[in-house]
Amino acid sequence: GAIPFSGEDYKLLGVDLSDLYELERTLEEAGLNNEIPTLFIAEVVLTYMENTRSDALIQWAAEHFPQACFLVYEQVHPEDPFGHVMQQHFSHLNTALHSLARYPDCEAQQRRFLGKGWTECSVMDMNEFFTCCIPEDEQQRVQTLEPFDEYEEWHLKCSHYFVLAASKGMEPSWTPLLPSVTAPRRAGPVGMAGSVPAAVCARLSGIPGLRRYGHHCVLIKPNVILTTGGFGEEDGQHCRMRNFHVLSKHAGYWEAVCVTQNIPDKRWGERLYHTVSCISDTLALVVGGRTSPSSSGLGMLWLKFPETCNASGPDDIAAELVSLQPAAEAAALRWRHSTTEMTFKGEQYLFVYGGRSALEPVLGDWYFLHTPELSYTVIAVEGPVPESRHSHSACSWEGGVLIAGGLGAAEQPLGSVFLLREFERGFQWQTIETHPPLVPRYSHTAHVHEGKLLLVGGVWFHASSVPGITIIDLMTGLCLDYAINVEYLEWPLMLHNHSSVFLPNEKELLVIGGGGNCFSFGTHLNPEPVSLSLSSILISH
């Protein structure tokens, strides 16, 4: 063990940590006094060692230093979809993570230290650390450093890293992981009421255009789905998607075809986190979306297609810009919002709600647009106004709108469910109480079927499991979570930034796209659409 660098109060040593005899000799030579309080910091170090050796190192530190603290930062939760992508990344680099198999969660890491000579040990994942231990003004400073729109990947990465602080012999005892704010403690694992099987669709594999995220799929008529926008794979490279895809079902099988679009200004066609609403058999409306997080002035777009449009003869889809009256323009300057069909006094409206903009990290406003001419209408709304949110879900129900979840102010997931329903001369917000309370989530999709709200996937902070299908009975508020059984899939299913279409007759849910761009582990796109059969959990009464 050489001492390659030595300063007045700093020594940099090169030594193999798995050779404890050599480590001890080198530290002694460098003049380390192990009788005074000593801090060990291991920032993604132990996991690269064989477990028997890292365990021995942890125990050695406890035995040789009467007053010591040990800080660890490394990965956790290898078995969920993001955990698989993370492990793949490190395997490709030929640096496998050894700790994960034996110490898969925070509790196991805590037991590890307490069992190896450390008397105090606290541990939390990085979502909890960021929320609870970083002062609010510092959180806000970080959140406004640059235009940022990768919330899903950020929160997933933070749920797969933990920070641990162990100590022994310290008077007074040393517990640095003391929350400065008390965030709601995440209860134990989310109880699952059962599971639903996931299967790939026979004829939809190998179509690169269906590997995308931040796109939008809409049923334009029974068994015909239009997919637009997003970021994904086109001509062998990752880019914002310009082309449309039409999926249609023939004789029980889904087929897909790519439709080149002829939009006057190509920027209008390349958008993420927009919405698409079907107005008639031949007309759909695209609202909002962004190209980059600093440019979102994309306005609205009409998509016109022939009545015969399907995957065997998609024809052309014509796109033209919508000229909006000035009062309605702000409705389109947003993304991660929702646009929902609704009725008022027997007339058809679109309800644009929430989202975010280049200026506002989270929006709580709404617009009523009368269809088809999209005139901006002021309608009175009473009741408790939902807190601002984006990446929520919104569904039409009995002429009104159901809003669920989303990411709220301070980038915290929300668990609230609201119903906007017609009331006297306008509308009223009503809170739907769920039992047990809905686990806060965002970036999910939603559908309504026979008085039940179905939430599909999303991101939540409960690291012990990933969101599957949640069913909320709108009459009773009963809330049940179901896991998605992925044993028949050969790849990790990422259920965020996806789009989904529910087919009520078959009780089948088609999930198209999903995934994201993780700054640490690269781009992950679900390679093909997945069909979820819900017939076992949607028993008709």
Automatic annotation (TrEMBL):
<dbReference type="Pfam" id="PF04072">
    <property type="entry name" value="LCM"/>
</dbReference>
<dbReference type="Pfam" id="PF24681">
    <property type="entry name" value="Kelch_KLHDC2_KLHL20_DRC7"/>
</dbReference>
<protein>
    <recommendedName>
        <fullName>tRNA wybutosine-synthesizing protein 4</fullName>
        <ecNumber>2.1.1.290</ecNumber>
        <ecNumber>2.3.1.231</ecNumber>
    </recommendedName>
</protein>
<keyword id="KW-0489">Methyltransferase</keyword>
<dbReference type="GO" id="GO:0031591">
    <property type="term" value="P:wybutosine biosynthetic process"/>
</dbReference>
<dbReference type="InterPro" id="IPR029063">
    <property type="entry name" value="SAM-dependent_MTases_sf"/>
</dbReference>
<comment type="similarity">
    <text>Belongs to the methyltransferase superfamily. LCMT family.</text>
</comment>
<keyword id="KW-0819">tRNA processing</keyword>
<keyword id="KW-0808">Transferase</keyword>
<dbReference type="InterPro" id="IPR015915">
    <property type="entry name" value="Kelch-typ_b-propeller"/>
</dbReference>
<comment type="pathway">
    <text>tRNA modification; wybutosine-tRNA(Phe) biosynthesis.</text>
</comment>
<dbReference type="GO" id="GO:0030488">
    <property type="term" value="P:tRNA methylation"/>
</dbReference>
<dbReference type="InterPro" id="IPR007213">
    <property type="entry name" value="Ppm1/Ppm2/Tcmp"/>
</dbReference>
<keyword id="KW-0949">S-adenosyl-L-methionine</keyword>
<dbReference type="GO" id="GO:0008175">
    <property type="term" value="F:tRNA methyltransferase activity"/>
</dbReference>
